[in-house]
Write a structure and sequence with these properties.
8 helices; about 40% helix; mainly alpha
């Protein structure tokens, strides 16, 4: 039903540019937080750290949406629908990522003077190619550099393009979680995977793979991450090495998990 009037296209470009800018800020400030934290943290307490940042839409009443001249044509109660969509994501789609997310686990080999790319905190999703797919595969949008955040709103979640044009309340959060592990024998300083089930271990490594360096396959990232930071053994042998074959990832992670138990 997207009319793609001149006013709507102008509005689309505006919200798309805003979402791109917010995404860049999210990555930039996550990097700032990460660099500061890895220099100054309590090494006696902290066994591991998790960094997670989110950008999403938030419905907080009528001020959270714009009223546009095409409302009558669409016949939608946008106020109610955006409220419902916001609650739906919170309550029923918790397994999905926030609308845009970046983050990583602490790597003791990271240094504050390293680039965002080396720290794996680079926005490689916006690489100059438009996210021209799904509902955004529309002829009227073909000359617009559709950013990753716009794609996530309309393709990963349930916002129509007319919904997107009316979103007027975005927020970002940056979190660092400090972790310490201990048991009844008084041992601490355990690595984070020491008390994970295999599925928890697998899910965490796959999640890290979502934020791999640009140009890397998921298998390459997981192969190198496990050898360098978990096993600390670059010579670890596995017939399921996913370095050149992503289909071997699960089997490789099972081999790694067995090795660290």
């Amino acid at each position: 039903m997207f009319l793609a009037t001149p006013a709507e296209l102008e509005r689309f470009e505006k919200v798309n540019a805003l979402l791109y800018d917010l995404t860049q800020k999210l990555y930039t400030h996550t990097g700032i937080l990460y660099r500061k934290t890895i220099v100054d943290y309590d090494r006696e307490f902290t066994d591991d750290m998790e960094f997670e940042s989110k950008l999403r839409y938030s419905y907080n009443g009528k001020s959270s949406l714009l009223w546009l001249e095409e409302n009558e044509y669409y016949g939608s109660d946008f106020d109610r629908m955006l409220n419902i969509l916001d609650q739906y994501v919170d309550e029923y789609k918790k397994h999905r990522e926030p609308h845009v997310r970046c983050g990583k686990s602490f790597d003791p080999e990271d240094k504050p003077d390293m680039t965002a790319k080396k720290l794996r905190l680079e926005n490689f999703f916006d690489d100059g190619q438009p996210w021209f797919e799904g509902p955004l595969h529309h002829p009227a949008l073909q000359n617009i550099l559709v950013c990753y955040a716009t794609h996530v709103f309309c393709s990963h979640h349930d916002f129509s393009i007319p919904d997107l044009l009316r979103l007027n309340d975005f927020w970002m959060e940056l979190h660092v979680t400090y972790q310490q592990f201990a048991d009844q024998q008084g041992r601490s300083g355990l690595v984070w995977w020491a008390k994970c089930s295999f599925e928890e271990f697998r899910r965490k490594i796959l999640d890290e793979g979502d934020h791999r360096p640009a140009g890397w396959s998921r298998g390459r990232f997981i192969s190198e991450r496990c050898r360098r930071a978990i096993l600390e053994d670059n010579d670890f042998k596995s017939e399921n090495d996913p370095l050149h074959d992503d289909s071997k990832i699960d089997a490789f992670l099972a081999d790694v998990f067995a090795e660290i138990q």
